Amino acid sequence: MMSEQPLPAVPYIKIPDEGEPYLEAYKCASCGATFLGERQNCSKCGSRDQMSTVKLPNEGKLYSYSIVHRSFPGIEVPYVSAIVDLDDGTAIKGNLINVEPDPDKIEFDMPVEVIFADALGRKDGDGNSYLSYFFQPKS
Hints:
By secondary structure, the protein is mostly beta strands. Helices cover 0% and strands 47% of the residues.
């Protein structure tokens, strides 16, 4: 059955009934490390049952990137795969959009924002569309 609202492309994209979509992470009460994706134990310090959900900030800085020129069939290239350090210190990976895939146009540490948009126009067998997250240079 088709959903009228887009579905999250990954489980850590939360789409509330009211308000904007956001990324949800798990944070360790023992060491403060945050991770995308549900987990019971901390991958950094090994603490058990100390994980709780937190809403991630939508701003950060570009830590690293790679310009991808070859990918799976049907994936448009080139695109920019990036790692961003969010303002709370959480590092997440995603695609950097709305910038030319040219090293002269991309600066390390440049301010970026997380945006939520249609997942490349793809639909599943039931006709559902999906919402994904991307990074773009902060205006």
